[in-house]
């Protein structure tokens, strides 16, 4: 008999079926017992006559196979239950569970949850987070493919950093020193110039930052894109606006049950996301909130306040902040007037989830920018080569996948939306 | 005026259009010149009246913008050409090209090609390789999503190796020592047990192997999958057979032009790929080819000969070799009779492109297997936890994306189908 999933049983009333999964809950009422069996598709109620089938030793989270008849039962979620004829333990539980899985919310603290990450993922809500995350990444890829982007896989073992060598993890690479890539920035630009014009990557990036906040980990997934033949950064912002609309529409379809379970409202995005220039943002913070301590960048409080302002004023949960000062942007950023740049961040519910902008494409200008920052042109020679041989105007962006997931689903700590987080104190499991 | 791509000009005969791209070739016939303009979609012929427009200084590979009228021209590939009205250089070429790009085949040796990887990718054939590679990865993801698999992103910074600590790159992780993951093997198994049941990952893996062959690099992309609730390894093999059929059908659609340009024949896959048990494979090698030097594993020559045998006998370019000896398979491999295992490799045109098998799911059996190999149970405690709490029978496989690309497209050296290869001697560009 072929195994059926819980969600596949609809329309099979009266049939005898085989199901397999984990014992999610047991309710023993004496002569009769209810077992909730959980598989990857959902949870189904199974009714056991305990005079016929002995379930005394059966432990929560055992993997079992049940053969039984499907019966209509309007009081449960699926509208059906299984009258159990046979029950077989496929894989048993040999210790007491270190955390309770079958509650609606995990009741352990975050450290315990992460120490037992794999078991914590059996909790229905925790499990749903990473189904949504997968769909976000797939929506990103699907949209970009349709827009003529080529998916790329660039190396994570690199000879130099993109910013001149700070915050890099060092790798012992045979007899050489190498580093883990902070971002695919240089490679994606190079591949625009290699003729692909439009490229994207979904990959790991590494930041050896020592600070320990709820917004940072040291390894995360970056959704990167880069596109050639643009006018300026507004082309990239327009693409991101359309992309987020499509990704959100996609996950509403794809993850309807998960979003429902997590009680998440997917935000509406209009045809244009409000956009505020950095100097204006400072002005708003001064005038509206009396916040005067910012000069060259926004801090988390500033980002939250601007988001609040935009939400109240324009009803948008997103806002682009554009034209950051040159001093706060990397050497490859296209300069604009007054010491500003053709750059942007996208804030979502008060947190930066995207950094992007137009890049310098002229070889001499890029060299001059590197020198002006006290960096060595020679150390960027691999990156610079393509700029000597015809490089189109281009720009791009990077979205932190775990941050996007967290902001969308309402989790405060990035570790909650990272499958196996890596931070200063954690490299396990 | 909006930019048009070369491939979008069909049906625009008589219209004035704007195109942008690289100068692929120039043929100057005195009063008239032909410029081939290359963009991400293809190459279009542009006709310049050199008395009107001066192209004396125009260099190959410059990025230009051309405005002109589309005219029918049956003698060229697209069936049209552009009569140039305006030509503007957007980004110039400031040095002599280190390699010739516009030949049908790159004429430089592999080292030179890789030293100038970005420019070499402008060559039409070289460029096409990585469009096919992207489509292979996308076909993999699309098939698995349809089959109920969840895409996962597992950490590449890990505390221990999967095989007991050999061939690992070491990372200085703050004040700790960590390693780069050799494979997502443990994580994908753990996530099967976390309730996802079916998971896949497309990600980087790292092997600190010191050998230097045409089949190995030290960083590559692994197409990994793992599935729960299987009978044995044959379920995984059946899935891979269906998957390869679908991936190949997908790339035939998606990459018709690239495959044509590369003169590639995509192999047919029947409903079943021939399958030979390892001991029988040795017997065939002895009897048919007098090859007697193999005992516990196939070597590259053995793989080529078996592939030749299967091709001649069954007409298949693929063959599964199953039941490898326990001594040659990792500790998590499910044992079979006679010291063999529930494992398989898939050979494609004589090269192993997949390793897979059923895994041990019983906690005690897995612990015993670890101990029997002289490894420490304690060092695998993160991995082992889920096996104590109900782990379904499961198995999976890993496909090397660059190997699959190379075997499909007929490249002998894996570096040719790796975007930016990393080997013992190369970490740049």
Automatic annotation (TrEMBL), chains A, B:
**Which residues take part in binding ATP?**
207-209, 352, 400-403
Q: What is its main location?
A: cytoplasm
Enzyme nomenclature, EC number? 6.1.1.12
Q: Which UniProt keywords apply?
A: Aminoacyl-tRNA synthetase, ATP-binding, Cytoplasm, Ligase, Nucleotide-binding, Protein biosynthesis
Residues recorded as binding L-aspartate, renumbered to this chain, are 163, 207, 355, 359
In terms of superkingdom, the source organism counts as Bacteria
KW Protein biosynthesis (keyword) present: yes
Q: Where in the cell is it found?
A: Cytoplasm
Q: Which GO terms describe its cellular component?
A: aminoacyl-tRNA synthetase multienzyme complex; cytosol
Its UniProt entry gives the catalysed reaction(s) as: tRNA(Asp) + L-aspartate + ATP = L-aspartyl-tRNA(Asp) + AMP + diphosphate
Q: Please provide, alphabetically and separated by semicolons, the GO molecular function terms listed in this UniProt record.
A: aspartate-tRNA ligase activity; ATP binding; catalytic activity, acting on a protein; RNA binding; transferase activity
Domain called Aminoacyl-transfer RNA synthetases class-II family profile: residue spans: 130-429
Q: Where are the transmembrane segments?
A: none
Q: Write out the GO biological process terms.
A: aspartyl-tRNA aminoacylation
State the family named in the UniProt similarity comment for this chain. Answer: Belongs to the class-II aminoacyl-tRNA synthetase family. Type 2 subfamily.
Q: What this chain does, per the record?
A: Catalyzes the attachment of L-aspartate to tRNA(Asp) in a two-step reaction: L-aspartate is first activated by ATP to form Asp-AMP and then transferred to the acceptor end of tRNA(Asp).
**UniProt subunit comment:** Homodimer.
Task: Provide the protein name.
Answer: Aspartate--tRNA ligase
User: What organism is recorded for this protein?
Assistant: Anoxybacter fermentans
């Amino acid at each position: 008999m072929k195994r059926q999933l819980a969600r596949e049983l609809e329309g099979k009333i009266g049939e005898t079926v085989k199901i397999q999964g984990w014992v999610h809950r047991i309710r023993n009422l004496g002569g009769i017992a209810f077992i909730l069996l959980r598989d990857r598709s959902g949870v189904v109620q199974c009714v056991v006559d305990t005079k016929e089938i002995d379930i005394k030793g059966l432990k929560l989270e055992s993997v079992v196979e049940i053969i039984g008849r499907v019966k209509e039962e309007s009081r449960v979620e699926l509208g059906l239950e299984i009258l159990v004829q046979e029950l077989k333990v496929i894989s048993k539980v040999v210790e007491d569970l270190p955390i309770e899985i079958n509650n609606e919310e995990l009741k352990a603290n975050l450290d315990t949850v992460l120490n037992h990450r794999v078991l914590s993922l059996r909790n229905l809500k925790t499990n749903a987070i990473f189904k949504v995350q997968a769909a976000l990444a797939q929506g990103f890829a699907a949209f970009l493919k349709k827009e003529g982007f080529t998916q790329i896989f660039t190396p994570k073992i690199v000879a130099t950093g993109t910013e001149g060598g700070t915050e890099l993890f060092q790798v012992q690479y045979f007899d050489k020193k190498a580093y883990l890539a902070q971002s695919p920035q240089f490679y994606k630009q190079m591949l625009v110039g290699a003729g692909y014009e439009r490229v994207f990557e979904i990959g790991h990036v590494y930041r050896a930052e020592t600070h320990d906040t709820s917004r940072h980990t040291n390894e995360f997934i970056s959704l990167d894109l880069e596109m050639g033949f643009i006018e300026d950064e507004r082309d990239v912002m327009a693409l991101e606006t359309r992309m987020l609309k499509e990704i959100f529409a996609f996950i509403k379809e794809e993850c309807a049950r998960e979003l429902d379970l997590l009680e998440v409202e997917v935000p509406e995005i209009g045809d244009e996301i409000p956009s505020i220039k950095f100097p204006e943002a400072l002005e708003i913070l001064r005038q509206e909130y009396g916040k005067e301590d910012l000069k060259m960048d926004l801090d988390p409080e500033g980002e939250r306040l601007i988001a609040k302002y935009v939400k109240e004023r324009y009803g948008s949960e997103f806002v682009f902040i554009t034209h950051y000062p040159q001093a706060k942007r990397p050497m490859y950023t296209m300069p604009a007037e007054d010491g500003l740049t053709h750059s942007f961040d996208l804030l979502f519910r008060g947190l930066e989830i995207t950094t992007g902008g137009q890049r310098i494409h002229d070889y001499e200008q890029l060299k001059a920018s590197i020198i002006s920052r006290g960096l060595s042109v020679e150390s960027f020679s691999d990156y610079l080569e393509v700029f000597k041989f015809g490089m189109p105007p281009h720009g791009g962006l990077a979205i932190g996948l775990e941050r996007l997931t967290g902001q969308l689903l309402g989790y405060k700590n990035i570790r909650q939306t990272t499958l196996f987080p890596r931070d200063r104190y954690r490299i396990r499991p």
